[in-house]
Amino acid sequence: MTLFNITAIAIALAMDAFAVAIAAGIKLGRVDLRQNFRLAWHFGFFQAAMPVIGWTAGLTIRQHIERYDHWVAFALLVFVSQGMLREAFGDSDDSQSPKDPTRGATMLMLSLATSLDALAVGLSLSMINVSIWMPSLIIGIVAAAFTTVGMHLGKRVAKAALIRRYADALGALVLLAIGLNILREHGVFQSVGG
Prior knowledge:
Blueprint: H1 3-28, H2 33-57, H3 62-66, H4 69-89, H5 104-113, H6 116-127, H7 133-157, H8 161-165, H9 167-185, H10 188-193
């Protein structure tokens, strides 16, 4: 597998992390170095680790994982987005700082949800006998870079007062859209409609 192909795969896998990072930047409004590092590190680490796990699993469990990986990702994204919607439309004290999506369980769920596709990539690479170490490293670095750019882009967008006011709702809608897209990519809507 060529470096070009690996990089193309890494960029495709980083798109979910990029979109979530934009939503996180919008939600936070101000992104400090620690928050940026935490999210970029976790997204990059999970994106790098999942192909290794998938590659190690190989063909033996592929059919079992493929049946429900998209549902797990969707459920995690729905869970996080419903909490963001509650914060957006609930009775919240404006003096209270917004919940930081770069900390705790929320960050771990987002890291897992945005990296499940990388697990499938690792499984695929094991089937064609490609060594996983270089692709995994490139996938992790690209995801961390896209996360950093996404957070800063989200921070800039958040400066608009209207967007800032509804940042949680906007972020929740982005997460739901990613979740629905994951289901679409796995043909869920085709089997329902056809």
